[in-house]
Write a structure and sequence with these properties.
mainly alpha, 56% helix, 154 residues
Length: 154
């Protein structure tokens, strides 16, 4: 149990650092404004987390991919292109700035693979990798790295 929590903490740490270092996004801006008023560090962090929860920033994290809905990569082959054809939003894909690829993705993907190997199963990693391929072929749409349901790192 403690090892699992450490792994979750490691993936969360990578994710939060990538959020913080990602240009001048809403949560970074919010924390800087709060800190700039002379407020304490904790208030700046709480403000940043509040901005991160918004649906136009990281708030889509609450729409996490439910791996229990996919039993194998073959099933994912038909589900995701169909969602694209129906013009449905596919959570975890497409970024308003990084239309080709999110540069943070390779970091998250590497951490996900490492944690999956440490956990003794690459099953979910392989499904996520397949979904990435399927979505790229269907719509030239790459995964959003932080807050993405793909490459779950916990």
């Amino acid at each position: 149990m403690a090892k699992s929590r450490r792994k979750a903490g490691k993936s969360d740490a990578y994710s939060l650092v990538l959020y913080a270092e990602h240009e001048f996004n809403a949560s970074t801006f919010t924390s800087r404004v709060i800190a700039g008023t002379g407020s304490d560090m904790y208030s700046a962090i709480i403000g940043a987390i509040g901005a991160l929860r918004g649906p136009k920033h990281g708030g889509r994290m609450k729409c996490r991919w439910n791996p229990a809905t996919l039993r194998n990569a073959g099933r994912s082959r038909s589900r995701y292109p169909q969602a694209v054809e129906n013009k449905e939003v596919v959570i975890g894909f497409g970024h308003p700035v990084y239309t080709i690829a999110d540069p943070r993705h390779q970091v998250i993907k590497r951490v996900a693979k490492q944690l999956s190997q440490e956990g003794g199963s690459l099953k979910m990693y392989n499904i996520a990798d397949r979904l990435e391929t399927v979505m790229w072929r269907a719509k030239r749409c790459s995964p959003i790295s932080t807050g993405s349901p793909l490459f779950p790192t916990t």
